[in-house]
Amino acid sequence: MAHNYRGRIAPSPTGYLHLGHARTFWFAMERARSEEGILIYREEDLDYNRCRKAYSQAAIEDLSWFGCVWQKGPDKSEMKQSYRQSERMPLFLKAWKDLKEQGLIYPCEKSRKDIRKASENIQNIDLEPIYPEAWRPSHDVADKIDSPEGYNWRFKVPQDRKIDFHDENLGPCQFSSGKDFGDFLVWRKDGIPSYELAVVVDDIAMEITEVVRGEDLLISTARQILIYEALGAESPQFFHAPLVVDSSGDRLAKTYKSMSLRELKKAGYSPEDLRKSEAWWSGIEDSFES
Questions:
Q1: 226-250 pLDDT, tens digit each
Q2: Per-residue DSSP letters for 188-242?
Q3: The domain 6-86+242-274 belongs to what CATH superfamily?
């Protein structure tokens, strides 16, 4: 593990956090603690249509009640930088310009419907359509545009490149660009940087050495490694944790109100009760300690 360990938890204030969020963030805290490092709380609040201030405050309150501890974040009085993505737009814009100058991104005017229709027989294992390479515009199209607004911007993935990385939980992982995923969004036409770009830029700026998150984001790691390389930065280590599932075996979602930390607290459960529950231990091996 790297010296001067720096981890992060990164909730989005789009709803109340559930037990699955708490477990992943607990793993992140424990891994930072075992390395005598620090844990950063970063709020990923770029989606202004879905994010709410009430959820922002609730996340801090609920995770604190659960026992999660972090050293830097929006609730800390000694804060020297913003830990809310909505306040860090200049950094994302700088990265967009860097990628555009390298000719690695391009404006896209195709709709999701267009892409689905054109890619009906070209999908990855998650049935995600692969963006047709033939739709890439000529290089001079991007050169004439000075601002990302008004277009969806996509990253040009290299064809048939094997992207290998070691996951600290899952072991060796490999994805093939152009097969497992195609040209992906880095900026939305409504003026918001995509998840893939924003988290990489922030993790670089905050000097994160290990990213702990749910295994549903495993393929995002392959995409993000390409962005790290393009921005001239070293990728952190990754730890993708199993997802908490309900009694039917389905992953939890914020719409699953009964499993939100807030509702569980109201129902009389203590954090200790929850960390001993069947739901907490779903999908994880005995080697994980609560």
A1: 999 999 999 999 999 999 877 666 7
A2: -TTS-B-HHHHHHHHHHHTT-SEEEEEGGGHHHHHHHHHHHHHTT----EEEEEP
A3: HUPs (3.40.50.620)
